[in-house]
Specification:
About 40% of the residues lie in helices and about 25% in strands. It is an alpha+beta fold.
Amino acid sequence: MSGGVLHGPAPAEAPATPRKGFVAQHLRSILAIVLTLTLAGGFSTVLLPTGLFPVVQFPRVVVNLDAGARPADQTAMLVTIPLEQATRRVLGVLGVRSTTSRGSAEVSLDFAWGTDMVAASVQVDAAVAQVLPSLPPGSSYRVRRMDPTVFPVIAYSMLSGTVGTVAQRDIVQYQIVPLLTAIPGVAYVGLQGDDVQEVQVLVDPHRLAARGLALSDVAAALGKANVLTVVGQMQDHLKLLLLTVDNTAHQVEQIKDTVVQGGPGGLVRVGDVADVRDGVVQQWTRVTEDGQPAVQFQVYQQPDGNTVAIAAAVRKALAAYQAQLPAGVTLANWYDQSTLVTDSATSWRGCSSRRWWRSSCCCCSCMSGSG
C-alpha cells in the first residue's frame, strides 16, 4: 500500500451576511437630523418679520423742506442752495440731487452701500437744523431714510353724507390716529383730507392806509392778543394750581374785536380794517372716494414690523371703534398689503406640501431599495 494523504470532504462555507447600505445603517441619525432642522426652520419662521418687502436700508436720505408760498427761483436761491451746501458736508455723501418748486425743495443724498443709514440720517438732520435759522421764517423740514417702510401697509377712507370733511378730519386726527399709533409695530399714520378749518383775515389796504397803519401792525396785534400765559402758582388743599391768562380767540367776533391801535382818536379794531370770516386752508390735492370728498389715512410700519399682525390689529381696532363714529360716517378699506403676503404664503405652503410629499416618497423608495 502506498502512503498518501486522505482528504475528507470540504467543510461547508457559512452564508455571507449582506452588507447594509449607509442610509439603512444611519437611518435613525438621519431622521433625527431632518426632524431637528425642520423644527428649527419652523421656529425661525415665527421669529422672522413678515412683510411684502425685505428689510433693506437703501443708501439714500431725502430732505423735504417747505418754505411757504414764494416763486421757484427765489426758493432755489434762498432754500435749495443753502440746503445743498449744508448737507454736502455730511460724512459719506457721494452725490446730491435736488428738485425745487414754488415754496418747497427736495434734496436727495446718496451714500455708499453698507453705510449706517441711521447715523447718516441723524447727521443730515443735524446739518439741516444748523442752517434752518438762516432760511425764510416759517420754514419746516422732514428727513426720511429710504427703505420699504415708506409705503403704507393698510389704508382707509372716511365717508359721510351728513358730516363735513372738516369734522371728518378732526375725528381722524384726534381720535383714530392716536388709537392706531398705539399698536405695536406702527411707525406713524399719514393723513390726507380736503378741508382744514381756519379763520381768514382779509385786510382792506384802503381802510388800513386811512388810519395810518400797516399790515405788520395787524399781524403784530393778532399775535400779541391771541396768547395763553402762565402768571403764577397757587396752593390750595395740598394742590398746586397754575394761574393763567387765556386770551386765545375761539370765535370770529373775538378776532374782530382785537385792538390794533389806541389813542385820542379812539380804538382801531381788526374788524375796522379787515373782513374776518371762517374758511378752510387752500388745498392743492383733491381727495375723493366713490366720487365724493373724503378723508384718507394710511398706516406705516416700523422697519422690523410684522405686516400681517399690524394689519390685523388695525382692522380689529377700527371694528371696535365703529360704534363711536357719528351716524352716517363709514370707513372703507381701499388698500391692504397684508393680503398680498398671506396669499403668497398660502400659495407657497401648497407648493411646499406637494413637494415635501414627493420628496418623502422618493426618500422612502431609495431607503427601501438600498436596504
